């Protein structure tokens, strides 16, 4: 039991520190709530409405790739430091682990995690209508209430 005493002491110290920090924050923190302080803030732009669309799924797939490889590095580093002492069992375990990581990577790639931008296709010039321009095909977002951009201003 004596070997766990430092861990128990650290746990008690962490809980005491968290409780004291919470109480001191409640007692000393200024309370001046206002509408501008409660409003969401991003890059100095005050939002006038909800965003028109959600985050694309590819954003989350890239985050999953990061997590998979981050965890892989966390487990491969200790293996690399003692791989000679582990013998065949260690090699087998790391091969199974690497296969699982590779399988998750293949899954994410199959879901299009690294396919950014529009799909590139070969287009014949006679298929595209000459009436298609950037003003007829590009969706302008966030221009409500703004003056239209003129050629002099550009």
Percent of residues in beta strands?
Answer: under 5%
Assembly state: single chain
Radius of gyration computed on alpha carbons: 28 Å
How would a textbook summarize the main sheet? none
Query: What do the pLDDT scores average to?
Result: 78
Number of DSSP-assigned strands? 0
Spans of at least 5 consecutive residues with low confidence: none
Q: Name the shape in a single word.
A: flat
Secondary-structure blueprint of this entry?
Elements: H1 5-28, H2 35-38, H3 57-110, H4 134-137
Describe it:
- By secondary structure, the chain is an all-alpha fold.
- It is 56% helix and 0% strand.
- The chain contains four helices and no strands.
- The protein has helices at residues 5-28, 35-38, 57-110, 134-137.
- It is flat, with a radius of gyration of 28 Å.
């Amino acid at each position: 039991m004596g070997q766990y005493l430092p861990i128990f002491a650290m746990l008690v110290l962490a809980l005491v520190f968290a409780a004291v920090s919470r109480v001191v924050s409640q007692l000393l923190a200024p309370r001046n709530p206002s509408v501008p302080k409660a409003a969401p803030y991003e890059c100095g732009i005050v939002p006038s409405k909800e965003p028109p669309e959600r985050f694309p799924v590819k954003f989350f797939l890239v985050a999953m790739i990061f997590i998979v490889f981050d965890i892989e590095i966390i487990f491969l580093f200790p293996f690399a430091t003692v791989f000679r002492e582990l013998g065949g069992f260690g090699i087998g375990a790391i091969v199974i682990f690497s296969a699982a990581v590779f399988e998750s990577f293949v899954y994410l790639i199959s879901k299009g995690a690294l396919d950014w931008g529009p799909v590139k296709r070969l287009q014949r010039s006679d298929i595209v209508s000459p009436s298609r321009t950037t003003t007829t095909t590009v969706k302008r977002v966030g221009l409500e209430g703004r003056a239209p951009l003129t050629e002099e201003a550009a």
